[in-house]
Amino acid sequence: MIEAPVVVIGAGPIGLAAAAHLAERGIDFTVLEAGSGVAAAIAEWRHVKLFSPWRYDIDSAARRLLEQAGGWTEPEPGKLPTGGDLIDAYLEPLTKTPQLSGRIRYDAEVAAVTRVGFDRIRTAGRENAPFLIRLTDGTELTASAVIDAAGTWRRPNVLGGSGIPARGEAVAADHIARALPDVLGRDRERFAGRRTAVLGAGHSASTTLLELGELAKDEPGTEVLWVVRGTDQARTYGGGDADELPARGALGTRLKTLVQSGAVTLVSGFRTEELAPTADGRVELVAGDQRVVVDTVVNSTGFRPDHDMVAELRLDLDPIMGSTRALAPLIDPNQHSCGTVPPHGVDELTHPEPGYYAVGAKSYGRAPTFLLATGYEQARSVVAALAGDWDAARDVQLDLPETGVCSSNLAFDEASAGRGLATGISGGLLTVIDGSTKQSGCCN
């Protein structure tokens, strides 16, 4: 038996859920967080509201630890939290429970994960060697197992329509904004009175489009373009009143209305080939004979996992999804929405490298159908397996909303008029806003 703690990479919702389950089972662990605080990725979109109410946003083991610690008041189950609420009212208090306090290392970015004394080629005895984790500052630590909940937020997809960067994309970096900018808050000056193209057909794109639509009402000269590869936006507009997450269904309806009114100009069938600077300081997007000139391009094309840091481990990755080969057909966005993904756990997440598991958004590779609820159940199943409780590990249960396309649907709450990312029944990760609050859906 390897005498070393389990190392959890990432102190977001799924990483901390894994930590909570490890704590409950009495397994020693350390959490490594690249950012300076808990859930650093979520902190970048704390202004956005989740699609799902609080009742679906809290992991079961985490809830038990918070209740045991005392002094924590569980948020109102039916309310939709913002990313900031998720941190302030749930994740931050969780890190202060006796079981997690002192177990999280911040500013601890992982550079590589391997086996002590073993590269990927060597076989004999490798399962008996501890994992070696090297941080970007050069420090190293060992682990008996690794739960990789690093997410995908730091690895956005490229703008190029063929999966590789468009020509000139790197040169035009100053004109490209990350997904989910705070259009009505800290980033307002960048978009007010200017022309913006939002690329993508998912939750983050819809969130930003709705915020830009609000901004255009108050700021003359603000122009909004929605640039997509497809020609049918029915998936993005979603299930409307039939959606089991009312906020998500209404949001899609609102976006459709915005496009039909002309407040947002839809540019469809556009596969970006090139970005080129213009003489007046703008940037031109080129797709064949099509041209779009804007001040800023918001990259809402999704994300992809970073497998480079685990390149010396033996992984069985699906060549298309970038998930495990067993999980890929269950999450393929060509076949599934977030609500139709079958229950899955440790068996579908297992690699040829014993003791290494990617959970959360990273486990889905490039599939955009991930939900918080799914991630929580993944974490529970994996930890049960590490504890040797295989009956619990394989008793995987999920209750997800079937209506709506997680990878492209939106949520909207009439009372709060928000915008954001969805996490489905477990809590969409972002939603949409009026002038004061925002909302979202599928997590990443």
What does this structure look like?
This protein is α/β, with parallel strands linked by helices and 444 residues long. It is built from 12 helices and 16 strands. It has helices spanning 13-24, 40-43, 60-69, 83-95, 188-191, 203-218, 234-237, 246-261, 328-331, 346-349, 372-386, 390-393, and strands spanning 6-9, 29-32, 104-105, 110-115, 131-135, 140-143, 145-148, 176-177, 195-199, 223-227, 265-267, 274-277, 283-287, 290-294, 296-299, 356-358. The strands form 4 sheets. It has a 5-stranded parallel sheet with strand order 3-2-1-7-16, with helices on one face. Helix 1 crosses helix 3 (60-69) and helix 1 (13-24) runs parallel beside helix 11 (372-386). The longest helix is centred in the middle third of the chain and has 16 residues, at 203-218. Residues 402-444 have low confidence and may be disordered.
